[in-house]
């Protein structure tokens, strides 16, 4: 993929022209590393004030339909950033709350797990709960293992990949993070589900989808947006991504949102 820096004047003008040509814009954003800088304590990783301010302006526009898509639990994600007309997808979209409906939607209902899958899942939860240097986050759907050391993460990832091979769970790796979650659902499927729900509820067409994210789990979303705008937030990583454009860090995301909101 030939990645282009979004905030270069030529690319920025190209994106603004694309936004001006459509009636409805579905703006999907990851949270950590995209709207909020990484923190040792995830509960202190709040969105940059400039980014939140622009999102609050965008949600007042009938043209924009905002969605936050995160690996965080839905309840936790909603505490981190409070928007009124926004759709929230937690646990990589395994739990979704649409702004125009009541209650939580579970689009990928918990499947009936085989004995081996349940056994390996329980074994992993018990093992990592006892290990120093690892914080276990039980999401109900799966586990998020937060590591202090990237070397330890890498070593454990290989063991877990082997353990859960050909089971009902998949193992995904992020920054000092390993997630064990059900097979068959990802952020790509989640944003397609949310898009369909918005279209049906509001009876709208002529849309442009934008996805901004920084993690391996966001690649699933980049892949399903073939006719939209995909933006990778690089942070400290390389540019090995399917996204068409890139930003350097959450500060860049805030700057882009400021430009977009300023066009209203």
Second rung of CATH, namely the architecture of the largest domain: 3-Layer(aba) Sandwich
> Looking across the biggest beta sheet, what order are the strands in?
1-12-11-10-2-3-4-5
Strands, total number: 12
Mean pLDDT: 92
Q: Approximately how much beta-strand content do the residues carry?
A: 15-25%
Shape: globular
Q: Please write the string of helix (H) and strand (E) elements.
A: EHEHEHEEHEEHEEHEHEEH
**Uncertain regions: pLDDT < 50 for 5+ in a row?**
none
Give the C-alpha Rg.
Answer: 18 Å
Per CATH, the class of the largest domain reads Alpha Beta
Q: CATH fold name of the largest domain, please?
A: Rossmann fold
Count of alpha and pi helical runs: 8
The main pleated sheet reads as: 8 strands, mixed
Per CATH, the superfamily of the largest domain is HAD superfamily/HAD-like
Task: Describe this structure as you would to a colleague.
The structure is a single chain. The protein is of the alpha/beta class. The chain has 2 domains: 4-108 and 185-262, Rossmann fold; 115-182, Alpha-Beta Plaits. It contains 8 helices and 12 strands. The protein has helices at residues 9-20, 49-58, 74-80, 115-129, 150-163, 187-202, 219-224, 250-262, and strands at residues 4-5, 24-29, 64-69, 86-90, 95-97, 134-138, 143-147, 169-174, 177-182, 207-213, 229-233, 245-247. The strands form 2 sheets. It has an 8-stranded mixed β-sheet with strand order 1-12-11-10-2-3-4-5, sandwiched between helices. Strands 6-7-9-8 form a 4-stranded antiparallel β-sheet, covered by helices on one side. Strand 3 (64-69), helix 3 (74-80) and strand 4 form a beta-alpha-beta unit. Helix 2 packs parallel to helix 8. It is globular, with a radius of gyration of 18 Å. The two termini are 31 Å apart. The relative contact order is 0.20. The model has no long low-confidence stretch (mean pLDDT 92).
């Amino acid at each position: 993929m030939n990645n282009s820096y979004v905030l270069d004047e030529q690319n920025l003008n190209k994106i603004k022209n694309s936004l001006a040509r459509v009636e409805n814009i579905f703006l999907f954003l990851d949270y950590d590393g995209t709207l909020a800088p990484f923190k040792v304590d995830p509960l202190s990783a709040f969105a940059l004030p400039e980014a939140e301010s622009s999102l609050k302006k965008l949600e007042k526009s009938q043209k924009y339909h905002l969605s936050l898509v995160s690996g965080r639990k839905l309840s936790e994600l909603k505490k981190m950033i409070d928007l009124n007309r926004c759709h929230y997808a937690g646990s990589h979209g395994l739990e979704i709350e649409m702004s125009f409906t009541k209650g939580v939607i579970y689009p990928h209902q918990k499947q009936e797990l085989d004995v081996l899958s349940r056994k390996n899942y329980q074994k992993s939860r018990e093992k990592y709960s006892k290990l120093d240097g690892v914080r276990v986050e039980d999401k109900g759907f799966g586990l998020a293992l937060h590591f202090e050391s990237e070397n330890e993460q890498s070593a454990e990832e290989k063991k877990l990949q082997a353990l859960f091979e050909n089971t009902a769970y998949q193992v995904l790796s992020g920054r000092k993070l390993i997630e064990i979650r059900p097979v068959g659902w990802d952020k790509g499927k989640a944003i397609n589900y949310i898009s369909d729900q918005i279209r049906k509820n509001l009876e709208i067409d002529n849309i442009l989808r934008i996805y901004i994210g920084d993690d391996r789990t966001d690649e699933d979303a980049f892949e399903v947006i073939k006719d939209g705008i995909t933006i990778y937030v690089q942070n400290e990583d390389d540019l090995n991504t399917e996204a068409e454009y890139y930003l350097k860090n959450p500060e860049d995301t805030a700057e882009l949102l400021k430009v977009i909101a300023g066009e209203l």
